[in-house]
Specification:
Radius of gyration: 23 Å
Number of strands: 19
Largest sheet: 8 strands, antiparallel
Strand content: 15-25%
Distance between the termini: 17 Å
Oligomer: single chain
Length: about 475
């Protein structure tokens, strides 16, 4: 630290340092060619496109440790990266081209599976789908589920505290982690791979690393919490007369199904129209138009039809109370998959419509309908003709409040200016409603400045203090989150 408390600027890596780092992983896994680097430099939505003198692909925690020790001594920045599926720019380097990218994608060992203890230990480069498959092979269930699960990696899920469609029943990633192995900025390894459910031995360092977006350390392995495999699932696509009905249906479902309610997602008709227009042959499973829809799933621990009976009871009571206007219960796994595909494609369906303003926000569950109504008014005021496409995890208050540009509008103007104006106005509303401007995607680069608007000075001071304690030279993912 300098006399005024600030850090001196970091250094660009010298050719000698690059050669030294390449020796750690081997020339084959030290990428300097721009074409080979490209997948590691471009964010999936093309909002950020960074530059780097070197992309390193270590295969072990020991190699990560050596890399960080070298970079920390030389005061050279390191950007950790997992599957490069993040949505806030936290995983790509800045454009100036002086940061090392460290990909954990080669760290893919399953170190231990303890079916009796309902946990398994995996390295951070395993994809989420592979983690799910390993649990399944052991007769267990790992419930974290995201549309990107085939390409996102568990280390990135941990770094961002990913949410997904299973949060209602199982919680965020944070609730699914028992222990972590983490490499600190100076190369020291924190050996925290415990599978204990109870461990009150001082400060919980594990929870500091979960959601820290690679700014405090690099996760190299984790102990994941497993669950019994659901014996059956019942899925329904439900039509609602109005958005307020979603809250009434959720309350009824929660009371009726208790812990068996495993998903409760909501979608708008406008969003589904976009999806079906841009991704045929997907279609809305109703002949008539309805303003809002819910995708509900009930799971059961016994294959005796109980999940289906619970779902039917919920829908029957909801229809009798005029909470719903129509519903289709999936008659097969294939039909249930078709229903889920409508939910999973919602964000991608907006791409052909032009520019988008996207929000990953949360408010108290009871205020979700109020938020969307008020936000729609705000968006129309800021940009007349813009098209709100809200959807998301109603059961945990997480709304992906996305806005597509007006039909025929200027995409460049919308993306470069109007979207920022909409973001600021919507985030102001979220703050007023005691919500969060980042429910599950993190802060990264895109929300860093917004964070300073809504975190209190004391919270920011504590966060900076933690960063300084773990990474005094500031080499880990600089400029992200803080």
């Amino acid at each position: 630290m300098t006399a005024d408390g600030s850090r001196p600027p970091l250094n660009a890596p010298s050719p000698a340092l690059i050669a030294r780092l390449a020796e750690v992983v081997g020339a084959e896994h030290a990428l300097v060619d721009p074409d080979q680097q490209l997948p590691y430099l471009r964010e999936m939505r093309d909002l950020y496109f960074g530059r780097s003198p070197l992309v390193l692909r270590p295969s072990s925690a020991e190699q990560v440790s050596r890399i960080l020790a070298i970079c920390n001594e030389a005061r050279v920045a390191v950007v950790p990266q997992a599957g490069n599926t993040g949505l806030v720019g936290g995983q790509v380097p800045w454009e100036r081209g002086d940061e090392i990218v460290l990909s954990i994608a080669r760290m893919r060992q399953v170190r231990n599976v303890d079916a009796a203890g309902y946990n398994m230990t995996v390295e951070a480069g395993l994809t989420l789908a592979e983690c799910q498959a390993e649990a399944d092979k052991a007769g267990r269930f790992f419930p974290l589920s995201l549309p990107s699960e085939g390409s996102c990696r568990i280390g990135g899920n941990i770094g961002t505290n990913a949410g997904g469609v299973g949060v209602l029943a199982f919680g965020n990633t944070r609730q699914l982690i028992l222990g972590l192995e983490v490499v600190l900025a100076d190369g020291r390894i924190v050996p925290g791979l415990k599978s204990l459910k109870k461990d009150n031995t001082g400060y919980d360092l594990r929870d500091l690393f979960v959601g820290s977006e690679g700014t405090l350390g690099i996760v190299t392995a984790a102990v994941l919490k497993l669950f019994p495999k659901p014996a059956e699932k019942a899925t329904a696509f439900i039509a609602l007369p109005q958005l307020d009905s979603a809250l009434a249906l959720f309350e009824l479902a929660h009371e009726t199904s208790l812990s068996n309610l495993t998903a409760f997602e909501f979608l708008s008709h406008e969003g589904l129209e976009m999806l079906c227009r841009n991704f045929p042959p997907n279609r809305i499973p109703f002949g008539e138009r309805h303003p809002w829809y819910v995708l509900m799933e009930v799971s059961g621990s016994r294959a005796d039809g109980q999940a289906g009976r619970e779902l039917e009871a919920i829908l029957t009571e909801a229809a009798e109370k005029s909470v719903i206007t129509d519903a289709v219960i999936a008659a097969s796994l294939s039909q249930a998959g078709d229903f889920w595909k409508l939910r999973e494609l919602m964000s991608e369906a907006q791409k052909p419509e032009g520019g988008s303003a996207k929000h990953d926000v949360s408010v108290p569950i009871a205020r979700v309908p109020e938020f969307i109504k008020r936000a729609n008014v705000i968006v129309e005021r800021v940009c007349p003709g813009a098209r709100p496409v809200p959807f998301g995890h109603f059961g945990d208050g997480n709304i992906h409040y996305n806005i597509s540009q007006p039909v025929g509008g200027d995409k460049t103007l919308f993306v470069t200016k109007t979207a920022h104006d909409i973001n600021a106005a919507v985030h102001d509303l979220v703050h007023e409603m005691t919500g969060s401007i980042s429910a599950e995607h993190g802060i990264g680069r895109s929300k860093r400045d917004e964070l300073t608007r809504f975190k209190s000075p004391v919270e920011l001071e504590l966060m900076r203090g933690i960063k300084n304690a773990f990474d005094p030279n500031g080499i880990l993912n600089p400029g992200k989150v803080l």
